[in-house]
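Let us work through a complete example step by step.
Step 1: write down the sequence.
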Amino acid sequence: MQGIQVITFEHLGLQNIQQINEDSRDSFMATASFDSRVIDGQLIQKILHQFEHIMQQLCLEDSSQKMSEIETISTADKSEIWSWNSSVPAKVNAFVHRLIEDPVRSHPESPAICSWDGNLTFRELDALSSRLTHHHLAGLGVGLEVMVPLCFEKSMWTIVPMLAFCMNFI
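Step 2: predict the structure and record it as tokens.
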């Protein structure tokens, strides 16, 4: 019997996906326990469908299949991704920092970044990026041909140094 069951759980997040039944060598049933206040049930369904997709490939009779040959994304997931990307925006032949200059002039108080940790207007984004560019980067020896790794959590602050580097070195 092949099937996947989703059961809500009191603890935070996704707790586990576990084998709960083995009727035969060719089948299994998995259950995911999760807190529906933290993780949406549809996301859990997607995780379980991906788990099922991978497990079906691992359980094939062809034991010569290499792990690198396992398709981690299903045909249905590929179709969904292609539908999200069905309309490709027109190519803009300009640098990112140049694209920011127009809204800085035309509507500086409009939101440029809206993030979980705060918001920045175009004016604020430009001011912070310019300040970082002119007052800090050059003094640290940052210049052309100098590799500077950037590592940030998803945050409104991620964009500021990226834009500063573009302003200064492109």
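Step 3: interpret the result. The chain has a mean pLDDT of 82.
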